[in-house]
């Protein structure tokens, strides 16, 4: 058992004071409670524990403070950084890289960003890894010209970072966010070293992941989730012609579904960097003729482009905010027979289902809970829904 050294200040591993088996029991209990809270009968569900409960995350967003502290934020205190704290959720490749980046942050002459005064430059370093121990560092900053940083000065400082990583398989990019933005996801970026993506292989499928795009953060559990989505769809494979992978990112689920079922998959994703990666991923996995990516919000897609054949299945994997009212209305009025709904916030799913009307038209056929985020209270859930 590992316990986060900075409990209770660190919010990244709040359950790490419990042995892993207790955490799993605790999370099963939270899941049951959530159904009771909305007055619903608790369904039978399968709980899939994490094969790797510590050092599992392949992406960590570390903050640089105005004083040059570097690490995770203190729980509930956005202005405080736990200096030198990588946390036990981060995988070991990231933890090693963290130490190097921390020394670079401490030694650099580039100005640190001040979140109260909105001055300065260095905001975050997002570190991503893959199962081959390769790295992608995304240095998130204010646009350099706004704060008077010349490209010569920037290059000199970045060369120091590249030298620190000598001998490590590393890619480094710079992403810019507006001066007042405190997001760790930037838009415009420059490749500093190597390539602007990291290759991830899961269940034998190959994915390019670009610096600012979403990708599953727990590769071992993501593999189990992907298998379960495929298995679920297999259960009604003679009843559909088209699959819609809504909120599809870079095609993590859609590409696997196309390859297994040799059927057309429409992936809808609002972030252009992800759909661009998705098209490359479809080629990499030999399904570019089957998978079509559309850059759009799901709500716009459903109202402007979607034409039902009457034999569709929707795979839905929205972010934590869940489905918008438009999408919910669409599903209630004319959703397809089968929905495979992947939720990273089941309390929101329960609200949509029991309070916002889905339950009037769908019944829950099967529920699987994946411990995608060990050491935290969060899980990923798969709700297989069939129209009444
Ligand atoms: C939880 S991720 C799932 C991605 C993908 N299914 C996967 O497994 O990698 C949610 C995705 O939805 C995208 N997204 C968020 N809001 C959206 C919207 N309104 N319409 C379309 N895509 C959206 C995000 O950019 C992100 O890629």
Overview of this structure, please?
The strands form 3 sheets. The protein has an 8-stranded mixed sheet, sandwiched between helices. Strands 4-3-2-5-6-7-8 form a 7-stranded mixed sheet, with helices on one face. The chain is globular. The chain is an alpha/beta fold. Helix content is 30%, strand content 27%. It contains 10 helices and 17 strands. It has 2 domains: 59-202, OB fold (Dihydrolipoamide Acetyltransferase, E2P), CATH 2.40.50.1070; 216-387, Rossmann fold, CATH 3.40.50. The mean pLDDT is 96. Helix 4 (219-234) crosses helix 5. Bound molecules: S-adenosylmethionine. Residues 214-216, 247-249, 252-253, 268-271, 274, 297-298, 317-319, 344 line the site of S-adenosylmethionine.
Keywords:
Rossmann fold; OB fold (Dihydrolipoamide Acetyltransferase, E2P); eight-stranded mixed β-sheet; 10 helices; seven-stranded mixed β-sheet; binds S-adenosylmethionine
